[in-house]
Amino acid sequence: MLMQQASTEMVSAVAPIIERWKHEEGPLLPILNGILREFGYVPREVLPAIAEALNLTRAEVYGVVSFYHDYRQNPPGRHVLKLCRAEACQATGGEAVAEKLQKLLGVRFGETAADGSVTLEPVYCLGLCACAPSAMLDGELIGRLDEERAEEIAREVRA
Description:
Layout: H1 2-21, H2 28-39, H3 47-54, H4 58-67, E1 79-84, H5 87-91, H6 94-105, E2 111-112, E3 118-123, E4 135-137, E5 140-142, H7 147-158
Parallel strand pairs: 1-3
Antiparallel strand pairs: 1-4, 2-3, 4-5
Helix pairs in contact: 1-2, 3-4, 6-7
């Protein structure tokens, strides 16, 4: 019963966002972006309401949400650390930095720390190939990432 109540409340909370965009051309992405801005993630329980409002199947809506990596389906940590996993970063020591960060943060890619402090996400290019390896912490780009800087980041997100 409590879970159903939470789902109903969440659907009610996103209703104005759906209503705002549903009559526009190509409304799905603006709706998802609005929900992401409002809540920091796209809760799975709102997907049927979006599908119904747009006359889409739940599978179509889920396909879009699962395709784009920025549409998280769970609440993120207080900090979001995106670590580039593309070739340039791998070629310049990115794997060692990734292993170090996972160990220091106690999370693997795609996970949020148990204390909610940080979510670690893989990305496949941040456009900083000349400054590889790179990362993005809470929207701020970090180039020339090394193990020392990884330790600083870990201390920063745990503070």
